[in-house]
Structure formats: C-alpha cells, structure tokens
Amino acid sequence: MANVPRDITDRLRRLETALRELSSAANTAPALDQILDGDVVIGDGGQLRAETPQGRRVFSVGQTPRDDWGVTLARQTGAAALTVGADPEADNAQVVRLFTRDGSTVVMDDPHADGYLGLPILPIPWQPTPAWQTASRTTVGAVAWYAASVVQSPVFHLITETYAPPRTTAAIALECASGDGFAAWENWTVAGGDDGAWTTHTVTRPMTGLPHGTSATWRLRHRVSQGSGRITTHVIGAYQRNTTSADEVPAAAASSEENEGEN
C-alpha cells in the first residue's frame, strides 16, 4: 500500500471547501453593470461606444479616427444627431453641431471665429426712412435705411440696389455704430449712364470690433454726387452668417486667438 502523508486528506478537504466557497461567491456576485463610486477614464486613445444589435453606433466618446477627441450622439439609424468635435471639414475645430435627420447641420458654433454662432443664419431687418428716395446733394447724404440687431455671427452680408437717373451718379455709404457715433464700413457709387439704371451692390465683411452679443446699429446714407434728379436705394436683404474661411474672422477674434497662442 502506498505511503500517503497523514495530512493529505485534510488538505484535500480544505481545498474542496475553498472551491465551493469560490464558486458560491462567483454565482452570488453582483452583475458588473453599475458604477456606484469612482471614475471610468478613457485616455491615450480609444472610445466608449453604444451600438444597436445591427451594429449602428448611437453613442461614442473618446478619440475619433481623425485623432481628435469628441462626443457623438446618433439616432437609431446611426445618423449623427449631435456631435462635439469630430469635425470632418476643419482641422482642430472642436465644433458643436446639431443635425437634422437627413444630415444637414442646423445649429453650430463657428469653426474659425471663436465665440461666435455659426448656424443658423440670422436675418438683419432693415427699415426705410422717408429719404429712401432723395435728390439731396449734401456732403454727408440723407439716411435712407436703418437696422439694429444683436451680433451673433462673425460675418455681415448686405444686398442693396440703387437707381440713378440719366447722367447722374449716386454715392452710398454704409455705417455702423455699437456705442458712441457711427463708423464708415463701406462707400460706393452708382452711375445712371445715358438712360438711368438700377445697380445692385453687395457688402460682405467680418463683424470687426463687434464681439458676440454686441448690440449694433447700421444705416445707409445716399446722395447725388454728380448730375441731378432723384435717386432711390432699396435694401434687398441682409443677414449675419458663419465664416467660410479663416480670412473672414473678425479682427478682434483673430487677435484673441493670437494672444492665446503666445501664452
């Protein structure tokens, strides 16, 4: 008969007991579907994702395939509904975007001008004065139209048309005020030629000196600079919009970005 150590039976019994306790603990441990205390950290790459059984991603947070960091909320179809970062068009632009169900962006902050709204595009209403038609030859010109709005977006856009009688030239000035006094924004002339003519003019420029939330007032002046007769100016439309390139960033916003880069 083999020589069995006297304590081997006790050892086996203790091992069996430990295995039963371990199995019982595993079966009674709570499911790992709650975090009751502490943080979950995703760093050095990677994402936390939620997907439908069909593999459509409805939520993700972390580093995107473009190597920026952001958050995406999507609909059940997988189409994005709200994103922060993960901007497919502008490098290093942590833009917040709200999408329609067909993928159109309806709300976003501006990708180039920090501090401004990008979308939606907001109209600027204009009101005519009795001098929208005038024969004035005064140096400053009569005020033909007024507008007032709170600045939300970084780019100002205005479309006008002016009629000048035959052999007459009209001078038009766009001015803006956000505090004391008006400053010149743009000046142009319209020539009537031999028969008189309507001429369309468009002004597109950054909201320089007008940070987001500024209350601004604009006015159009016009006068007869050469010839004689009655001129007429119409405002066809006006709105404030997002930038389409870094060249349209208002000077104040550009200065702020440069200062941040120097710190």
In N-to-C order, the SSE pattern is HEEEEEEEEEEEEEEEEEH
Give the N-to-C terminal Cα separation: 85 Å
The amount of beta strand, in percent, is 35-45%
Helical fraction equals: 10-25%
Mean pLDDT: 88
> What Rg is obtained from the alpha carbons, in whole angstroms?
34 Å
Strand order of the largest sheet: 1-2-3-4-5-6-7
> How many beta-strand elements?
17
SS-based class: mainly beta
- Number of continuous helical runs: 2
| Uncertain residue segments | 255-263
Per-chain topology:
Layout: H1 8-28, E1 47-51, E2 57-63, E3 69-74, E4 80-84, E5 96-99, E6 105-109, E7 117-119, E8 122-123, E9 126-128, E10 133-134, E11 142-150, E12 155-164, E13 169-179, E14 181-191, E15 197-206, E16 215-226, E17 231-241, H2 251-262
Antiparallel strand pairs: 1-2, 2-3, 3-4, 4-5, 5-6, 6-7, 8-17, 9-11, 10-17, 11-16, 12-15, 12-17, 13-14, 13-16
Describe the structure.
By secondary structure, the protein is mainly beta. The protein is 13% helix and 44% strand. It is built from 2 helices and 17 strands. The strands form 3 sheets. The protein has a 7-stranded antiparallel beta sheet with strand order 1-2-3-4-5-6-7, with no helix packed on it. Strands 8, 10, 12, 15 and 17 form a 5-stranded antiparallel beta sheet that branches. A 5-stranded antiparallel beta sheet has the order 9-11-16-13-14, with no helix packed on it. A hairpin with a 5-residue loop joins strand 1 and strand 2. The model is unreliable at 255-263 (pLDDT under 50).
